[in-house]
Specification:
binds ligand FHN, 4 domains, 29% strand, seven-stranded parallel β-sheet, Immunoglobulin-like, TIM Barrel, disordered N terminus, flat
């Protein structure tokens, strides 16, 4: 049953990647119940906050250079278009004579790092361990060393957690598809992607069986269309079955939203998001995530890469990430001989010197309790049974001896101490109208980042944060329930008539129900004073679109598809299109419409959709390029996914009476790739492709 559901779920994809891979339903179904509570597994990881990423392999031997070009690194086989046979010759000569995993671990520890994630196999397919699945591994090198095994033992000796980076994409394995566009000489004849998935699973099994407890599986290279969410869920389940406590990143599945690294939404597996080379601007409350970043420009060693980030920038990034509740995975690309570049060593030592004295403000802390970041720096916090430690990281030491902390009330403040000095350095403070100020010495202990520790007792600190408005739904048919959240020590007053909330407005305790369209406006108050900006949220009572009688000549089973030729940059108004359209007949699976990838075309897709009950329906329209979805006799715009873009999904909500509703979907493809998928969710149900039985057309 599960396989059918999952393959039906995937059916709408443009490539219709329904898999023939026979999943073990026991494993996939079982993993829901074998899951140790994520929190229990994530505890060490949230405490750690800081890890070392290592990109190392045959590509390191080329040092970023090929044919006079110096802009390469771990992608060099593709970026320099090196034929397989030529690239594979590197294997025999790979001999990291200076590889000393103990030295790597000692340096990581000195840097204040708590875990290491190393590339077991990058996209080039070379395996840094002796794999029984392939000859393209360390056994064929001059060194013949189990590089991963040595690191696993060293990590254990030094008390470091260990993670395996493993690339799903594999430019070497004959069964991996697709081939690189430039590899016209490498036929894909006989390639069987399911056989490649078996190979991938067998190698992951080796990595999670032969090296003792592994703490993280860091998958990558999941973005190509051949890899599906079904494969991802099965691979996640395999990892958890082999090592139930292992943490698996979100790149095992298809949920990563690009370099932002965080999931597109529910339904994808993965224990943490993976922003890359960036820090999510506002942090992500309630989401585990880890920013991975290079120290210079490239992940793999590139001799010409001189764009090394400064100690200050790396330190500020670590603090910024921690202040937003994330982990920082900082990368080193070792040289071919196994040594770390001296520039990397210098930076790791500098970060370690800071972490040794001030790391308590990073390890095991939670995100800043403030709504915004400070101009002068960042905050982190750690709560305990008696109160909380609030750490203020001052990047820009004030010229005057005062540091203003907007939004912080001094209630419950027991002590203020400047850390990093030879002896505890107590600081004075005083309350302000909208916050407080601290009195600092002229000299700062550290050149780049200084830490003030504020000890609060009781439920403190009281931070003047704006309220959060949570609701069952913003658009409803009969009613919706709303709850307002404020930080400890604050009261919330709100209005529903659009007026400004005052201390005399109703105070929010618990939740309340809305039965009419209105705007909720809320504000935090402390000791009767307004102490936050006003937040507001509109709630709309919808009248269901009336159902219509299905015309006698309507046929169930799909929507009528008409194709128009032309060059479009936005969803066209086809009713007045000069050319006669080509009638493509009735289709239910829009991803399977013939010649969908034909360039310079538009489709007008019409008919009726059946709502099994009156209620709120969610629609998700995925397209490359633009598309719009309209419903009802009034052709109300439900989803607007217009424009020239790659595969992207927009959603919308429609209140529908039980029965049939007119549909008009218009889509166009300019040039390049194409995609079209329509999913919907009945009230309280999950999104799924629209079934043929729910569609009709003339
Ligand atoms: O293509 C890889 C890249 O080489 C590197 O491994 C990074 C590190 O996260 N991940 C992919 C790019 O997103």
């Amino acid at each position: 049953m599960l396989r059918r559901t999952l393959s039906v779920f995937l059916l709408g994809l443009a490539g219709c990647q329904g898999s023939t891979h026979s999943p073990d339903p026991r494993i996939v179904e079982g993993f829901e119940y074998a899951l140790a509570p994520a929190d229990a597994r994530m505890e060490w990881w949230r405490e750690a906050r800081f890890g070392l990423f290592i990109h190392w392999g045959l590509y390191s031997m080329l040092e970023g250079e090929w044919d006079g070009g110096t802009g390469h690194a771990e992608w060099i086989r593709t970026t320099a278009q090196i034929p397989l046979e030529e690239y594979d010759q590197l294997q025999a000569d790979f001999n990291p004579v200076n590889y000393d995993p103990d030295a790597w671990c000692r340096l990581a520890k000195r840097a204040g790092m708590k875990y290491i994630v190393i590339t077991t196999k990058h996209h080039d397919g070379f395996c840094l361990w002796p794999s029984a699945q392939t000859e393209f591994d360390v056994e064929g090198t001059a060194a013949r060393r189990d590089l991963l095994g040595e690191l696993a033992e060293a990590a254990r000796r030094h008390g470091l957690r260990l993670g395996w980076y493993h690339s799903i994409m594999d430019w070497h394995h004959p069964d991996y598809l697709p081939r690189r566009g430039w590899e016209s000489d490498r036929s894909s004849e006989g390639a069987d992607f399911d056989r490649y998935v078996d190979y991938l699973r067998a190698q992951v099994t080796e990595l999670l069986t032969d090296y003792g407890p592994i703490d993280v599986m860091w998958f990558d290279g999941e973005w190509e269309a051949t890899w599906t969410s079904e494969y991802g869920r099965e691979l996640y389940a395999l990892c958890r079955e082999l090592q139930p406590q292992v943490i698996v990143n979100n790149r095992v599945d298809k949920g990563r939203a690009g370099m932002a690294g965080l999931d597109k939404g529910p339904g994808f597996v993965g224990d943490f998001g993976t922003p890359e080379q960036e820090v999510p601007a506002g942090g992500l409350p309630g989401v585990d995530w880890e920013t991975c970043m290079t120290m210079n420009r490239y992940w793999g060693w590139n001799r010409a890469d001189t764009q090394w980030k400064s100690d200050a920038e790396l330190l500020h990034t670590l603090i910024d990430v921690a202040s937003k509740g994330g982990n920082f995975l900082l990368n080193v690309g070792p040289k071919p001989d196994g040594s770390f570049p001296p520039q990397a060593v210098e930076r790791l030592e500098a970060m370690g010197a800071w972490m040794e004295v001030l790391g308590e403000s990073i390890y095991g802390t939670q995100a800043s309790p403030f709504d915004a970041t400070f101009e002068w720096g960042r905050a982190t916090m750690r709560r305990d049974h008696e109160g909380a430690d609030l750490y203020l990281h001052v990047f820009d030491w004030p010229r005057t001896p005062q540091l203003i902390v907007p939004g912080l009330d001094q209630a419950g403040l027991e002590s203020a101490t400047l850390l990093g000095t030879d002896a505890p350095y107590p600081l004075g403070w005083q309350g302000l109208e909208q916050g407080m100020q601290l009195f600092l010495p002229k000299r700062k202990p550290h050149p780049h980042a200084n830490v003030i520790k504020l000890r609060f007792t009781g439920s403190g600190p009281v931070v003047y944060r704006k309220p959060r408005i949570e609701a069952e739904k913003d658009r409803f048919l009969k009613a919706t329930r709303v709850r307002l959240y404020a930080d400890p020590g604050l009261a919330i007053h709100y209005t529903t008539d659009g007026s400004e909330p005052t201390v005399d407005s109703p105070e929010s305790v618990g939740s309340f129900q809305l039965t009419e369209t209105c705007t909720v406006r809320a504000r935090s108050f402390h000791a009767g004073r307004p102490v936050s900006e006003i937040v507001e949220r509109r709630f709309e009572k919808l009248t269901p679109l009336p159902a219509v009688e299905l015309p006698a000549d309507a046929q169930p089973g799909g929507l009528r598809v008409m194709r128009y030729g032309g060059s479009f940059e936005q969803v066209p108004e086809l009713r007045f299109h000069a050319d006669r359209p080509e009638d493509l007949g009735q289709h239910a699976d829009l991803g399977a419409i013939p010649l969908l990838s034909k360039e310079n075309q538009a489709l007008e897709i019409t008919g009726w959709i059946y709502a099994e009950q009156t209620g709120l329906y969610r629609f998700a329209l995925t397209s490359d390029d633009g598309s719009t979805l309209r419903l009802g006799t009034s052709e109300e715009l439900i989803v607007d996914n217009d424009g020239l873009h790659g595969a992207a999904t927009e959603t919308g909500v429609a209140a529908l009476e039980q029965g049939w509703h007119p549909v008009r979907l218009v889509w166009f493809n300019a040039t390049g790739s194409a995609a079209l998928r329509l999913e919907w969710a009945a009230p309280m149900r999950a999104l799924r492709p629209v079934a043929a039985s729910e569609l009709a057309s003339r």
